[in-house]
Amino acid sequence: MSRLAAIAHQIPSRGLQSQSDDERLRGATIRRYFPDRPIEANDAPLLMPIASSVQITGRGTVVVGTLSQGRLKKGEQVQIKGFDMDSTSVVTDIQVFKKSALQVVAGDHCGILCRGLKASQVRRGMWLGKPGTILTSNVIKANVYLLSPEEDGRKTAIRSGYTERVFCSTWDVSAKLHFKQELLMPGEHIEAEIFFVNDVPIKKNMAFTIREGRTRTVARGVVTDIFEPLAIDPAFRDFNLQTILPKLKSIYS
């Protein structure tokens, strides 16, 4: 038996209230002795990108999506955040395949009834998660690759200031790209700052696409840094990079 397996199985289960307590203790012990081991999806903080929602009069709103990480049980408190909105609620019911469930884990597609949540407080693209763990911003740094014509991409280059829609997770918003060189040619990579018209839920190392006309993918990218949110006009009026760029501050610094 490997050292990892030995440590995991040495944890006693006697006296623990449930199997989930046993699993949490085992996971904590493994992370203590093996800090570089990737965190399994079920052990990570709860996160579910919201795909749709429907209000139930007198009970709250059901948000629908697939858990990308973590676990969720009835009665737990959750946070719904994104697009300049932020709410907390208590889960009163969980539905999987039209049947009530006590718990869901990463990979489960479900409907979550959030007590007291109004339809106006939630929209597609927001994230539901453990309170205090959802990060939102309207400015990121990313590695961007402009698809070549052979990849069904553009035939012409783009300039800094290029504006189009970015698709990531379950959200899509208008965004403006800024990069140092004059042109980005099809088939080339570049590091760019991307400014969104809304605060969107985001994580480092997330992948995204840039599409023209909402359907044609012309670029792909990966988030490399996230900056503190800035006040940006939704129409990008009075967008002065000379005054904006010095204000950028990474949330990780």
From TrEMBL:
This protein's GO CC annotations: mitochondrion
Pfam families for this protein: GTP_EFTU_D2, GTP_EFTU_D3
| This protein's UniProt keywords | Elongation factor, GTP-binding, Nucleotide-binding, Protein biosynthesis
Q: Where is the Translation elongation factor EFTu-like domain?
A: 60-128
Q: Which intervals hold domain Translation elongation factor EFTu/EF1A C-terminal?
A: 136-226
Mention one GO molecular function: GTP binding
In terms of InterPro entries, this protein maps to:
EF-Tu_GTPase, EFTu-like_2, Transl_B-barrel_sf, Transl_elong_EF1A/Init_IF2_C, Transl_elong_EFTu/EF1A_C
Q: Does the keyword GTP-binding apply?
A: yes
Lineage: superkingdom:
Eukaryota
BP-aspect Gene Ontology terms = mitochondrial translational elongation
This chain belongs to which protein, by name? GTP_EFTU_D3 domain-containing protein
